[in-house]
């Protein structure tokens, strides 16, 4: 029987899961829960044995979504008890200063992940819950947390440090941790082969734009910048998050709108971004609204693109140039309008998009710039699940993590 890893990837609006065959890297079974917490119906898709099962219903939170998913495994297969699972890998967004590496799931690490939820309010809670649910279901199988923030642990100090009072920053562990690191690491590691350039010296920008969105810059495969900070709120405009905003907006709202911390947290993390500006968090709905003449939606998309272009300029200056810009994640992989709008702004720098290639839908990694473009523009589907599966299997095989936790 094939050795497999079951990967649970909880995003802010989605759960992706995959039973990964370790030898081929293929997903033997996979699925998706999307539009969690949206005002419209959520969507489930479960694929196994060449069959696709779908369901639409409102999905209030990740726990409801995961329970429904386990029901799909029971009803449509495969039987998780007989699927050759050597590890369950759980994506966790925030590992803070505690987790530079993946960690075995134990009572202690579950509590640590929950404690870190203040630094990833939309993610760590549901991710810890997912580990609890799966541990109860498969108690004999080693379970591993793989952290988004680990890749950015070694960011240069100038990039990871806020210009905040040093004593306060040190006492409260306030620094830029970054997120989506498993994706930025995966993408930046496959780019050299896909674009046919040596990894050494290669200057890259990776745009992971999904519901959560972040940019990163890598030189020779090592991260030198990323847009998410202490929490996944900083940086680009997102489905429900403001991204960068003057922190004085917070003081202003406390003093003048008398908002409390929880109200502000929800306002900035859930009720802003695309959702807050248009009533829709999903870019597909936003494009539909624009076609119907909705001016708010048009402005929201303008802001969205403006921010992405700003980060490209910033990182290009920081690296002293850029060789490849890669689009990935839900929007980056599927939204040719956003890609075209971003690249249009880069035309004065010699970027040339092949419009036909950009408009072609595909699940394959591809270059969408013309051969004479000054910067290579690529679209590469991210595969956080495969990266998490490999890291989880390595720990299960070693029988211990780098913190001294051992499998039973
Ligand atoms: N076909 C599509 N066209 C445009 N945008 C899309 C398409 N498919 C997905 N998206 C966008 O991708 C987002 C989800 O991206 P994803 O990376 O799965 O998010 P997350 O992991 O943050 O939950 C959706 O909210 C939507 O905006
Ligand atoms: C960190 C983050 O925002 O993740 P996601 O995009 O999966 O919600
Ligand atoms: Mg995601």
From TrEMBL:
The active site is at residue 148. It holds the Pfam family Acetate_kinase. InterPro entries: Ac/propionate_kinase, Aliphatic_acid_kin_short-chain, Aliphatic_acid_kinase_CS, ATPase_NBD. It is found in: Cytoplasm. One of its GO terms (cellular component) is cytoplasm. The record marks 180, 241 as: Transition state stabilizer. It is an enzyme of class 2 (transferase). GO terms for biological process: acetate metabolic process; acetyl-CoA biosynthetic process. Substrate binds at residue 91. ATP binds at residues 16, 208-212, 282-284, 330-334. Belongs to the acetokinase family. This is Acetate kinase. It comes from Bifidobacterium lemurum. The lineage of its organism: Bacteria, Bacillati, Actinomycetota, Actinomycetes, Bifidobacteriales. The gene is ackA.
């Amino acid at each position: 029987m094939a050795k497999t890893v079951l990967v649970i990837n909880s995003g802010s609006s989605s759960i992706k899961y995959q039973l990964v065959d370790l030898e081929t890297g293929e997903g033997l079974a996979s699925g998706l829960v999307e539009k969690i917490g949206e005002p419209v119906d959520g969507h489930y898709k479960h694929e196994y044995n060449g069959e696709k099962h779908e369901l639409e219903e409102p999905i209030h939170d990740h726990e409801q979504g995961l329970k429904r998913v386990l029901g799909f495994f029971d009803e449509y297969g495969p039987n998780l008890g007989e699927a050759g699972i050597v590890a369950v890998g759980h994506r966790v967004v925030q590992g803070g200063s505690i987790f530079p590496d993946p960690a075995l799931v134990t009572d202690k690490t579950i509590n640590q992940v929950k404690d870190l939820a203040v630094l990833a309010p939309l993610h760590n809670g549901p991710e810890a819950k997912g580990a609890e649910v799966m541990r109860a279901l498969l108690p004999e199988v080693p379970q591993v947390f793989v952290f988004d923030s680990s890749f950015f642990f070694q960011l240069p100090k100038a990039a990871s440090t806020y210009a905040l009072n040093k004593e306060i920053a040190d006492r409260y562990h306030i620094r830029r941790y970054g997120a989506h690191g498993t994706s930025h690491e995966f993408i930046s590691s496959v780019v050299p082969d896909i674009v046919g350039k040596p990894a050494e010296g290669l200057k890259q920008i990776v745009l992971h734009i999904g519901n959560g969105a972040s940019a990163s810059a890598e030189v020779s495969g090592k991260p030198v910048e990323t847009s998410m900070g202490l929490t996944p709120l900083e940086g680009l405009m997102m489905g429900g998050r403001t991204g960068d905003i003057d922190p004085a907006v917070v003081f202003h709202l406390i003093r003048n709108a008398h908002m409390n911390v929880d109200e502000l947290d929800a306002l900035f993390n859930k009720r802003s971004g695309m959702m807050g500006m248009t009533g829709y968090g999903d870019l597909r709905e936003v494009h539909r609204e624009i076609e119907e003449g909705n001016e708010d939606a048009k402005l929201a998309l303008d802001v969205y693109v403006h921010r992405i272009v700003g980060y490209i300029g910033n990182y290009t200056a920081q690296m002293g140039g850029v060789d490849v810009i890669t689009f990935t994640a839900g929007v980056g992989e599927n939204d040719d309008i956003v890609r075209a709008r971003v690249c249009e702004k880069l035309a004065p720098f010699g970027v040339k998009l092949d419009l036909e290639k950009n408009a072609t839908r595909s699940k394959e990694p591809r270059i969408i710039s013309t051969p004479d473009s000054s910067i290579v523009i690529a679209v590469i589907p991210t595969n956080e699940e495969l990266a998490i599966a490999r890291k989880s299997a390595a720990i299960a095989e070693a029988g211990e993590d780098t913190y001294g936790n051992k499998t039973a």
